[in-house]
Write a structure and sequence with these properties.
Elements lengths: L1 H8 L1 E2 L6 H15 L21 H13 L3 H44 L1 H5 L7 H21 L2 H17 L6 H12 L4 H23 L7 H12 L4 H10 L3 H19 L1 H14 L1 H15 L16 E2 L2 H4 L1 H30 L5 H19 L4 H4 L3 H27 L1
Antiparallel strand pairs: 1-2
Helix pairs in contact: 1-4, 2-3, 3-4, 4-6, 4-19, 6-7, 6-17, 7-9, 8-9, 10-12, 11-12, 12-13, 14-17, 16-17, 16-19, 17-19
């Protein structure tokens, strides 16, 4: 109800801009030309490419096939994302109850149901809500398959991981890497892990083969090289905003230098990496501090590449601004955010270092670490952490539960 009330009330200025416009173009061309292409609608040449991942455009194309391309499909997108966001909360509550009981489920459910980023992102034509649902679904299916020793459920978990990987390539190596490790270590359940591994690897492999057969064009590696360069500039987010919004000459000069490095990187790693390395090695301590701070930026609050606060695009009549109760709740979440991140770190260490923790919980911890490392290397932007907020809160609940058990154990020993 909260998500639906939010998307019906909030007014996003020009909702098909930036990434959203690219997703729409891909969906349009999938629907009208059967081609995955960034070409603008009505373009005379529709050449296939692989700059974006296909999952979210395919999701949009399916809704466009049902509702057309007018205002009705926009409403359908937002409503469907409300449903997906709600389902994500339910899946995470189920996992929390399995690991920590009803109290853990209630705590996780309240935070996930009302967390401002998770509510607000349902109102954008962006992939974060879909990706968060697919990750939660994959982990729920994984945990269920392990509990029931079900090979079909393991295969379904693998397909959910593959759908997540096709929605955002950051997820691509995670399940195959962890599945291959378990295939080697967990001999009694080897058939289960083999089913998961095959299911999570085949669809992305088919997509990679398709991309390899395309003529030379702008592909996903170009986007990675751009993110790598932009993430290596501490000034990028501020300079990008000032250059666009204020026509600041200094910011424009910084953006020109960033663009020069990006073009060199796209021309070839042998040309781009030495240029990047020369800049980093000229002031190593500064850049070491920058990269060390990026995990905190990733799990921070304010969206940097966007409007700021919890907003990517300018948004009027947000319930978190117009409602006094929800505005106060947003302030509480802002204060809680770093403490939840700290508890999630404790829960991650507990999941990985304690031998008696459920395997799916260890997968959550490993996925959180892999995502953090990837975005630390590329761009550390709170928007990119939104799909992983469910994992963060589940791990935070685990961390809080572990601290409570330690405190209770010490209290019992002290009273004895």
């Amino acid at each position: 109800m909260l998500r639906y009330a939010y998307v019906r009330t909030a007014v996003v200025d020009d909702p098909l801009r930036g990434d959203a416009w690219q997703y729409f173009c891909y969906a349009w061309n999938l629907l009208n030309h059967g081609t995955f292409s960034l070409a603008r609608p009505m373009a005379t040449m529709v050449a296939p490419d692989s700059f974006r991942d296909p999952g979210y455009p395919a999701f949009l194309a399916g809704l466009m096939a049902l509702r057309g391309t007018g205002p009705a499909v926009y409403d359908a997108i937002l409503f469907t994302q409300c449903v997906l966001g709600t389902a994500t909360v339910g899946l995470c509550m189920s996992l929390a109850r399995r690991y920590g009981g009803m109290a853990a489920a209630v705590a996780a459910g309240i935070l996930l149901a009302f967390w401002p980023h998770l509510v607000g992102f349902a109102g954008y034509v962006l992939s974060e809500t879909l990706l968060g649902f697919l990750i939660a679904l994959a982990l729920w299916l994984l945990d269920t398959s392990l509990r029931r020793r079900s090979i079909p459920l393991a295969a379904m978990a693998g397909l959910a991981f593959s759908a997540a990987a096709l929605t955002n390539a950051v997820v691509l190596p995670m399940a195959p890497l962890l599945g291959a490790l378990m295939l080697w270590k967990d001999v009694p359940r080897r058939r289960l892990w083999l089913a998961l591994l095959v299911a999570c690897a085949l669809p992305p492999a088919a997509w990679i083969v398709r991309n390899a057969m395309l003529p030379p064009t702008t592909d996903a590696s170009a986007r990675v090289s751009i993110n790598l360069v932009q993430g290596a500039w501490p000034e990028y987010h501020r300079a990008a905003f000032d250059a666009i919004q204020r026509d600041d000459p200094q910011a424009q000069a910084i953006m020109a230098a960033i663009d020069q490095e990006s073009r060199a990187m796209q021309a070839g790693w042998t040309e781009g990496l030495p240029l990047l390395w020369r800049r980093l090695s000229a002031d190593p301590w500064r850049y070491m501090g920058w990269y060390a701070s990026k995990p905190a930026l990733l799990w921070g609050w304010n969206v940097a590449v966007g409007q700021g606060d919890i907003y990517v695009f300018p948004t009027a009549h947000s319930l978190f601004e117009d409602s006094a109760v929800l505005h106060a709740w947003e302030g509480i979440c802002y204060v809680l955010n770093p403490w939840i991140a700290l508890l999630a770190l404790i829960g991650t260490l507990d999941a990985l270092l304690s031998r008696n923790r459920p395997l799916a919980l260890r997968w959550m911890a490993a996925i959180g670490i892999l995502a953090t490392l990837t975005f630390t290397l590329l761009q550390a932007e709170p928007r990119y952490a939104v799909p992983y907020r469910g994992l963060e809160i589940l791990l935070a609940v685990n961390g809080a539960r572990m601290l409570w058990q330690v405190w209770k154990h010490r209290s019992v020993r002290a009273s004895a």
